[in-house]
Amino acid sequence: MKKISLAWQIFIGLVLGITVGAIFFGNPEVETYLKPIGDIFLRLIKMIVVPIVISSIIVGVAGVGDTKTLGKIGGKTLLYFEIITTLAIVIGLLSANIFQPGAGVDRSALTKTDINSYVDTAETSAHHSFVETFVNIVPTNPIQALANGDMLAIIFFSVMFGLGIAAIGEKGKPVLNFFRGTADAMFHVTNQVMKLAPLGVFALIGITVSKFGLSSLIPLGKLVLVVYGTMIFFVIVVLGIVAKMCNFSIFKLIKYLKDELILGFSTSSSESVLPRLIEKMEKLGVPKSITSFVIPTGYSFNLDGSTLYQALAAIFIAQMYGIHMSIASQITLLLVLMVTSKGIAGVPGVSFVVLLATLGTVGLPVEGLAFIAGIDRILDMMRTCVNIVGNSLASIVIARWEGYKIDKNADQKAA
């Protein structure tokens, strides 16, 4: 009997979760039983992320062994991230202006959700300048950065440590072998943990549907359709053109990442697929020195789905309150989002927090977010998928930019 592939197992878990959630809609016992399963799965993933990022970056950087080469890769990576995220914001603004998802929305038909839990984080984030973000990349205590899961600080320390190993030559080889072994062992652990993905997906999606129900989409249906439609357009057209320029097909990439996309969609967590993305992009032919740097950094600087959504949601709120935003105001919004969307990466509910920190800056009512907070999880599912595709493609772009050849059919060989 042919074994069911992991992608199909995850998809079956997704369908069963939606079914159970719909049958037991409004029943709080569903969360009681399913939450521990979902939480254990997410904790297992988070347990893996930091060791894999550290060991992969150290091995990759020590392999490059040249500060100049690494600096060149870093500069190209950040330039590419800035261009793509700015395009995502522009497309979000254009889509909101063309389709007007907030026009004529009856606010009385919408249920307000308490957003106080996000307010403190947003107030902190609003004062978190771009300069501060770069200062905080340098950890005062690497162990504390590891404990807090502060990804940018972890990346910085790992890069410096990798360069140190490369600089001491032969004496550094035992240390390098240790981290190479750690990376291989952690990828094995990842593959074991992924066997539990169908259960985790079943539990997490079941809780979401039982809480909000499918009916919660109706009053804000236009917003959901516009967000999903714009993100699909962004992936197929914008990222599709970028992939074509790299002599690769965006559809091949999506097919190759189907397991990770279903998992990311169900869990609303980009972090849940980070270890697998690094592994899969290496199998595709992207060198370890690029995957280990580009993908973890992208989780802070290249959240295409999140930045597109933030632009669209801000205009949606303006339209809902009947506030006309001039071109100058929208340009200000674009500039503010270019900074805030990168300044607080890694915060739970990051898109929501960024919006809270941004709306006041451009004179929009923060209270408007209370109307869309209830469906934020459903929008977050699609945002996560776009972030996954965007970061995977980024590693191919930088590899091609550095002169590496990516085989068009490598996805079939690696699958």
Automatic annotation (TrEMBL):
<feature type="transmembrane region" description="Helical">
    <location>
        <begin position="350"/>
        <end position="373"/>
    </location>
</feature>
<keyword id="KW-0472">Membrane</keyword>
<dbReference type="Pfam" id="PF00375">
    <property type="entry name" value="SDF"/>
</dbReference>
<keyword id="KW-0813">Transport</keyword>
<keyword id="KW-1133">Transmembrane helix</keyword>
<dbReference type="GO" id="GO:0005886">
    <property type="term" value="C:plasma membrane"/>
</dbReference>
<feature type="transmembrane region" description="Helical">
    <location>
        <begin position="7"/>
        <end position="25"/>
    </location>
</feature>
<feature type="transmembrane region" description="Helical">
    <location>
        <begin position="77"/>
        <end position="99"/>
    </location>
</feature>
<dbReference type="InterPro" id="IPR018107">
    <property type="entry name" value="Na-dicarboxylate_symporter_CS"/>
</dbReference>
<keyword id="KW-1003">Cell membrane</keyword>
<feature type="transmembrane region" description="Helical">
    <location>
        <begin position="151"/>
        <end position="169"/>
    </location>
</feature>
<feature type="transmembrane region" description="Helical">
    <location>
        <begin position="224"/>
        <end position="243"/>
    </location>
</feature>
<keyword id="KW-0769">Symport</keyword>
<dbReference type="InterPro" id="IPR001991">
    <property type="entry name" value="Na-dicarboxylate_symporter"/>
</dbReference>
<protein>
    <submittedName>
        <fullName>Glutamate:protein symporter</fullName>
    </submittedName>
</protein>
<feature type="transmembrane region" description="Helical">
    <location>
        <begin position="196"/>
        <end position="218"/>
    </location>
</feature>
<keyword id="KW-0812">Transmembrane</keyword>
<dbReference type="InterPro" id="IPR036458">
    <property type="entry name" value="Na:dicarbo_symporter_sf"/>
</dbReference>
<dbReference type="GO" id="GO:0006835">
    <property type="term" value="P:dicarboxylic acid transport"/>
</dbReference>
<feature type="transmembrane region" description="Helical">
    <location>
        <begin position="45"/>
        <end position="65"/>
    </location>
</feature>
<feature type="transmembrane region" description="Helical">
    <location>
        <begin position="311"/>
        <end position="338"/>
    </location>
</feature>
<dbReference type="GO" id="GO:0015293">
    <property type="term" value="F:symporter activity"/>
</dbReference>
